[in-house]
Amino acid sequence: MLVLPRSRIDRALASPATRHLTVTDVGYFPAARDHGRRRSAIRETVVLVCTAGRGWCETPDGRWDVAPGDAVVLPAGRSHGYGSTVGDPWTLWWLHVAGEAVDDLVELLGTVPPVRALDDPDAAAALTAEVLRWMDRDLTAASLIGASGAAWHLLSTLPSAGRDSRSGGVVAQAAARLRATLDDRISVADLAARAHLSSSHFSALFKEQVGYSVLQYRSQLRMSRARELLDTTDLTVEAIGHAVGYPDPFYFTRQFTRVTGMAPRAFRHRHR
Q1: 161 pLDDT band (50/70/90 cuts)?
Q2: Residue 256's closest CA among 233, 230, 34?
């Protein structure tokens, strides 16, 4: 556990390089039996990453269970509590952050519920470990900038995380399937059936967590891949359309033009 002195925090928050986000505290508690905290309010936002075991958290909005692979975001200025489950203590990576940009990040994430299912818990833990390594080195400006960068990276992964373990896993799996099978004609009904949900419920979850409907998300993925192929290969427009799931070249051209504002051939010639 590393905690910056208050005077060093104040200096960091006044520095152009770290005023937007400064890590004030960071730590790692393996199998943290009897671990817990209750606070009326603190100046920093608390981020917890659970990699094993189980725990709980409370805010004025309610109480939630925390499972392996979950992250918890507790905003500054609000009361909260959290702790390890008796009999199955959690392993926890954690940090506190402050700065001009933190409130905006927290607002983007939303804090009801405060628990989010991570797409890649190991990567989140590795980023927290990187923060810890930077701050363990020394308290120079360079080290605090390195810690801030790793914390930014960690926080930037949270908007894609699900609002709870089950729905987060369902949406993450569906998005991964769409990314892996651009040329597949898988439907919303197929994805919903795999998740054992109705099409309407699955569609609402997907849009809430990703920010786009399933069809919009798949269209974005396909057009991104099409742009890449136009830039990096000599494949015909017809072959590229087929590769990204549009067997009709005329329909592919219409869709590509609608999304990018120019036809595939014009895009290729312009960018070359």
Answers
A1: low
A2: 230
* Average confidence (pLDDT) over 196-214: 87
Distance CA 111, CA 163 (A): 9
> What is the reported pLDDT for 171?
81
The torsion angles phi and psi of 221, rounded to 5 degrees, stand at -60, -45
Contact of 175 with 220, CB cutoff 8 Å: no
173 against 213, higher pLDDT: 213
Whole-angstrom Cα distance, residue 77 to residue 90? Answer: 25
Bridge partners, 95 (sequence order): 26, 47
Q: Burial, 4: exposed, middle or buried (Cβ in 10 Å; 0-12, 13-18, 19+)?
A: buried
E strand or H helix at 28: strand 22-29
Q: What is the pTM of this model?
A: 0.67
- Strands, sheet with 62-66, edge to edge from the N-terminal-most edge strand: 36-39, 80-84, 55-59, 62-66
Q: Which two tokens stand for residue 132?
A: 């810890």
